[in-house]
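help with this record:
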Amino acid sequence: MSESRSITAALSALIILQLVMLGALYAQVPPHPPATIPLFAIAPFLAVALATAAAALIVGPVAGRTGRALSLLAGLMALLSFGPQKYLDPQFPLIWPAVLAAQVAVIAVFVGVLFRQGQRSA
């Protein structure tokens, strides 16, 4: 049960971090993410990332394949915004607390989901 609560807490942290970045984007408060990147616009991507993390919380982050898949997908999407590539971002000195917090949360999600999966397989 504590593993599920840890994953829930990590997913909640990712939701809050992404909501703050979305708010900064809309308000144009520095540091804010760029409005677009070569692959897509950031606001719709953040919306999908937030929706995925919320869906994982609603389904249950370790409740069957769906919950685990949504949790892992939410973590992967968060890494697009807060992954190791951000260490090379010129704004890193301004965004490092969010980057590190998100990376810790993603690790908690991955370890929790994959560890729980490993226990069930054994």
Q: What stands out?
A: The mean pLDDT is 91. The CA atoms of residues 38 and 45 lie 12 Å apart. Residues 92-121 form the longest helix (30 residues).
